[in-house]
Amino acid sequence: RSIFELWGHGRSAGELYASLKNYPMDKMLPYLQADSTYKVHIHTFNKTLTQAQKIKKIDALEFLPFKGKVNLKNPEHVFWILEDYGMNPNNVPEEPFHLYFGRWIADGQRELIESYSVKKRHFIGNTSMDACLSFIMANHGRVKPNDVVYDPFVGTGGLLISSAHFGAYVCGTDIDYNTIHGLGKASRKNQKWRGPDENIRANLRQYGLEKYYLDALVSDFSRPIWRKGMLFDVIITDPPYGIREATRRTGSQKETAKTAERSTENHIFVSSNYHLSDIFFDLLKFAAEYLVMGGRLVYWLPTYRPEYTEEIIPRHPCLKLISNCEQMLSSHTSRRLITMEKVKEFKDQDQNSYLLDGQYTPYRGHNSFREKYFSGVTKRIAKEEKDNQK
Fold first, then answer.
1. How far from each other are the two terminal CA atoms of the chain, in whole angstroms?
2. In degrees to the nearest 10, what's the CA dihedral of 361, 325, 144, 30?
3. Domain boundaries in the chain?
4. N vs C: which end of the chain shows fewer Cβ within 10 Å?
5. What ranges in the chain are assigned the alpha helix state H?
6. Euclidean distance between CA atoms 334 and 304, whole angstroms
7. pLDDT tens-digit readout, 278-329
8. Domain covering 115-245+267-375 assigned CATH 3.40.50.720 in the classification
């Protein structure tokens, strides 16, 4: 919620004051000058204090060398006393378990989760990314003003919104013609068809971000459409896992015997399976080639937890793994937020570098993620039915 520069802490008031007295004076003095203004704010977790109690706690800090003037409305420096009274609202102790004192630096932006909520968004799909997670991804990508951000599996554009909020110019591609053009059946309950103004541009317009929208194109990611060169500052994406949205790519009649798919605009193409392992290796290869030096790739990697090892995370010689964070989906499945940074210029010999090491083979096991996912669901349903019969 907020960031503080911690000056002291303890399990009692005495411990807190002793800790504060040991804090280096040269670090305090720049914020306690006579020509500055300040205020002290008290925040208690799981307990409410009276105003008299708050003033008493503030007065107890008089040993600190405050020389400036108190300004409650617009101070230059704000100091906080934080008191933690535990997690049980039915058993609140008289004295706090932990006390902290520090200088306030900045508040977080948690209000964005509510203001950008998917529930209020104009255009959504089956797999639109939760607002909180999309902002976390933008943070991992270190998205900043005037960056160019690309999502190769753009869907309804949820990840573009978070990047545009931070001042980046955004674009994306997707193989689904209907989604890109806002056509076909709606994903929202009690709505049969999408309206004429349900599209990615309308979403950005809803949040006052339309000026950052470059475009969204219908394209098969397995067949790159971009000219050679380092085009993107950040690539942020959530590839399809084959659970709620199909993993597919274009193919010829010779490659597949599947029926042609037809959209409301008479757009016809033949699709074939796009294996998860191929999606992720194509993604890394694309990022290695089209990211600027120091640019970041941020994506979700689905994993079957009983078989997970770090060896299955796809690697590329041009990309350095920065972080690997797990989000639990069920007892047996999860997905990992993978952040990578481009550290080496892409050369032609890096084109199929993943085939040279042993990583490609173990990761092919994720091609059956869909079957493993539903096998777990089937087992859980069978167990619940068995328990209900007892």
1. 46
2. -140
3. 2-108, 115-245+267-375
4. C
5. 13-21, 25-28, 51-59, 111-115, 131-140, 158-165, 177-181, 200-206, 276-290, 360-363, 369-389
6. 7
7. 888 899 999 999 999 999 999 999 988 888 888 889 999 999 999 999 999 8
8. no
